Amino acid sequence: MGIVTHHYTHILVGAGLHNGLTALALRQHQPDARVLLLERGPRPAGNHTWCFHGVDPDADVRALLGPLVEHTWPRQEVVFPDHRRVVETSYSGFTSASLADQLERAFADWPGSALMCGVTVAEIGPDHVVTEDGRRFTGDLVIDARGPGYQAPTSDAGYQKFYGLDVELEAPHGLDHPLLMDATIPQIEGFRFLYVLPLDDRRCIIEDTRFALTPTLDLQRMRSALLAEIARRGWRVARERREEHGVLPMTWSGGPEPVASPVRAGYAGGWLHPGTGYSLPVAVRFALAVARGGRDQTLERLDALRQDLTRRLPFYQRLNRLLFQCFAPEDMWNVFTRFYRKPEALIERFYALRATPTDRTRILLGRPPRGVNLGRALALLR
Ligand SMILES: Cc1cc2nc3c(=O)[nH]c(=O)nc-3n(C[C@H](O)[C@H](O)[C@H](O)COP(=O)(O)OP(=O)(O)OC[C@H]3O[C@@H](n4cnc5c(N)ncnc54)[C@H](O)[C@@H]3O)c2cc1C
Predict the structure, then answer these.
(1) Which CATH class is domain 4-71+92-152+254-310?
(2) Among candidates 336, 368, 343, which has minimal Cα distance to 380?
(3) What is the pLDDT of residues 31-73, one digit of tens each?
(4) Atom 45 in ligand 1: which residue has the minimum CA distance?
(5) Which residue out of 278, 284, 350 has the highest number of ligand 1 atoms within 8 Å of its CB and is therefore the one to mutate?
(6) Tens digit of pLDDT for each residue in 263-282?
(7) pTM (predicted TM-score)
(8) Pocket of ligand 1 (CB under 6 A)
(9) Residue 114 C-alpha to ligand 1 middle, in angstroms?
(10) Domain segments of the chain: what residues?
(11) Fold for domain 157-251?
(12) pLDDT at 321 over 70
């Protein structure tokens, strides 16, 4: 117990999306850093498919994400009972396997750095961590990104829940770009839509997603409902390759804490897009804030990013509150069909967490979505 084995410049706890990207950014921008990445699972990165909209103008973002991306589609589509729209914004995705491969490659050839899997961290301090099996490691900066499972569900939130399958169909599905939202299916628990990512002519990831008030995920029921929708489309599953599910809070309060080592990062630290429950756009900015620039100013850069994020959050959190508190569950889809009539550039900035003041006005002003409880909405907007 308690033997100091090595000193690192960075100790990253949890090799998920945030710390995975942070490690890769450090490899690119600070090859002399000595990084320890600790993961309790047998391999880094878990079991996810991460997607993002558009192409970032920042060359360093493209350099970080480029090697990870497995699929890019030039456009995306949404379908509602009263409206269909093809959005000419690209959509890209990568799986945990791709992030794990890149991490293993980066650490294989990184003197003084180490990726350790199958190691559960039990104690985290400002300059050290202790593993469950009693090993102690010290570092200049500790980043704790143990993922959404680490955070208790908050009461100030709605939830995005999903159950998905990566399947091979018996015949071609006929899609050549992602169907981001197909809300023409029965609305259950709240806003419900099917999400379909075509990976090749027969293979696709297909998910039943719900924006709901409760975090309970009944896997058996979600699976049956998804299989029923697949059948309703006339698709027959030849092979199930993988299953994916999750519950992501869509908060209307909170945000990242002021930054100090150990930095509470990643999803559990509130570094996420509250309007989507997704964290990739924030994770990329976080990774580059750690890696780009002198090591002595890392905390200052991270705190500047936190302040920028904190300024942007209230708008998105207010939208969540409007969605979850001012609409009956069966009417929530009206919010999205209205949003998807906005200009493409606005939609792209919304997802990138870069909505401008004009965007915000355009999203909120005008004829309200059908079904809104106007009195409650006006009270929230005041
Ligand atoms: C199924 C699913 C799909 C998603 N799809 C998207 C998407 O398309 N785009 C998007 O932006 N967001 C998506 N999200 C949301 C969000 O981006 C992810 O939850 C993201 O993985 C959060 O990153 P993270 O690094 O905070 O946590 P994680 O990626 O969950 O990583 C945390 C890691 O810490 C490890 N860990 C936990 N405790 C310990 C410990 N004590 N010691 C050592 N290791 C530990 C875990 O094993 C895990 O590997 C998705 C979420 C889910 C669940």
Answers:
(1) alpha beta
(2) 368
(3) 999 999 999 999 999 988 999 998 888 999 999 999 999 999 9
(4) 14
(5) 278
(6) 999 988 989 898 888 889 99
(7) 0.94
(8) 13-19, 38-41, 46, 48-51, 120-121, 145-148, 150, 244, 246, 248, 266-267, 278-280
(9) 20
(10) 4-71+92-152+254-310, 157-251, 313-381
(11) Alpha-Beta Plaits (3.30.70)
(12) yes
